[in-house]
Design brief:
Layout (H helix, E strand, L loop, with lengths): L15 H6 L35 E2 L8 E7 L9 E3 L2 E5 L4 E6 L5 E6 L9 E3 L2 E5 L4 E6 L5 E6 L9 E4 L6 E6 L4 E6 L5 E6 L9 E3 L2 E5 L4 E6 L5 E6 L9 E3 L2 E5 L5 E5 L4 E6 L11 E2 L3 E5 L4 E6 L5 E6 L9 E3 L2 E5 L4 E6 L5 E6 L9 E3 L2 E5 L4 E6 L2
Parallel strand pairs: 1-27
Antiparallel strand pairs: 2-33, 3-4, 4-5, 5-6, 7-8, 8-9, 9-10, 11-12, 12-13, 13-14, 15-16, 16-17, 17-18, 19-20, 20-21, 21-22, 23-24, 24-25, 25-26, 27-28, 28-29, 29-30, 31-32, 32-33
């Protein structure tokens, strides 16, 4: 199944600290200057999809007019989605390097070379940046300098983004990451030591979502896995019947995701069953969804961005692009941002799916937008990172 499950870096406007904590209600610890505080900060986008529940909601408002502010070249296609923290952009490239750029002007601050391509999106936490690579390692670097702090070897490549949770034992940050070694790994963020390992029946392509003391993710084994965060034991598995390449979004005890056999689902986690399903054209889903209070949005390989009613899965609108949409949409207030393999970044009305703006980069865009401090950062398979902002 390897060639079919090529990843495109699929790697809540609710209290972020409660979600990130997973199980506890503690005040966030003091952190260094380059960090993402667990408290809400509209100037930051610290990880893939913006928060551990992976809902793809940005709190930073966008300017009325957008223009290209800068672009910076890497040595390979950029399928990794950016993290933005403390005025810095962190993003991986297929050239095997993780980059730190200045958000203001795109100047390269540092680059760290790994042993393989980086499709994984970075996580920035407490002055450190964590990222997986296709060499099978998870790396922890100093966010200010790019200096390596530790690395942890899994048994195969890491394409999905790492996530994090507060330890239910002592409140220390733990990092979660899936690997093509069929396992979900839970590590101590400070040392890289393993806390536990959960084994599945096939590759883990996406990022685990975290909420309500559990991690939820789909596997290429055709199961939706629900794992207890304290000890890594299986709480539940839901038979889906098809490989799940995208990441799951969580809200209010439900999980939303698409799979390789052309279906998008809402699963009730407590009941362990499908609440509803959506099937339109014969096109698999690699895009991870954005979830608002009443809508679910995701891209498809049918070249469209879909907006469904969150309650019942009925279509609200669709927006047609000129290429497959593996990019995961981000909702910014009353607007939606998404890339397409047609080489364009689109800005669409959340209300009715009208196109408001697009920018033609040229190279395919399978990465997802990162939004912080009134700016949009996204990579392209032309090898560059692009930043858009106000006029």
């Amino acid at each position: 199944m390897n060639p079919l499950l090529r990843s495109y870096s699929l790697t809540l406007l609710i209290a972020p600290w409660l979600l990130l904590a997973g199980c506890e209600r503690r005040e966030p610890p003091a952190t260094p200057a380059v960090t993402n505080s667990p408290a809400t900060n509209t100037a930051d986008w610290p990880m893939f999809r913006g928060c551990p529940a992976l809902t793809g909601l940005a709190e930073s408002p966008l300017p009325t007019s957008l223009k290209l502010l800068w672009s910076s070249k890497t040595g390979g296609p950029v399928k990794s989605s950016a993290a933005i923290v403390g005025g810095r952009v962190f993003i991986g490239s297929d050239d095997g390097s993780l980059y730190g750029f200045d958000l203001a002007n795109g100047h390269k601050l540092w680059a760290f070379k790994t042993g393989g391509a980086i499709e994984s999106s970075p996580l920035v936490l407490a002055g450190r940046v964590f990222v997986g690579a296709s060499d099978g390692n998870l790396y922890a670097l100093d966010a200010a300098t790019g200096k390596p702090l530790w690395q942890y070897a899994t048994g195969d490549k890491i394409l999905g983004a790492p996530n994090w949770v507060k330890s239910p034992l002592d409140g220390a940050p733990w990092v979660l990451v899936g690997s093509y070694d069929f396992k979900l790994h839970c590590l101590d963020a400070a040392t890289g030591r393993s806390n536990w390992v959960y084994e599945t029946g096939n590759y883990i392509n996406g990022s685990p979502a975290v909420a309500d003391c559990q991690a939820v993710f789909g596997g290429c084994d055709g199961l939706l896995h629900v794992v207890g965060l304290a000890d890594g034991r299986q709480l539940k598995s839901v038979e889906i019947g098809a490989p799940i390449a995208a990441s799951v979004a969580l809200a209010d005890g439900q999980a939303w995701f698409g799979h390789y056999e052309n279906e998008f689902l809402c699963v009730d986690l407590a009941a362990g069953r499908k609440a509803w399903s959506f099937r339109d054209r014969d096109a698999p889903y690699f895009s991870s969804p954005a979830v608002t209070k009443d809508r679910v949005l995701f891209g498809g390989r049918d070249k469209r961005l879909h907006c469904l009613n969150r309650a019942d899965g009925k279509t609200v609108w669709t927006f047609a692009t000129r290429g497959q949409v593996d990019s995961s949409p981000v909702v910014c207030g009353d607007q939606v941002l998404v890339g397409s393999n047609d080489g364009r970044l689109y800005r669409v009305s959340l209300a009715d799916g009208r196109e408001l703006w697009n920018y033609e980069i040229g190279g395919a865009i399978s990465a997802s937008p990162a939004v912080a401090d009134g700016r949009i950062v996204i990579g392209s398979e032309d090898g560059s990172v692009y930043c858009f902002g106000g006029q």
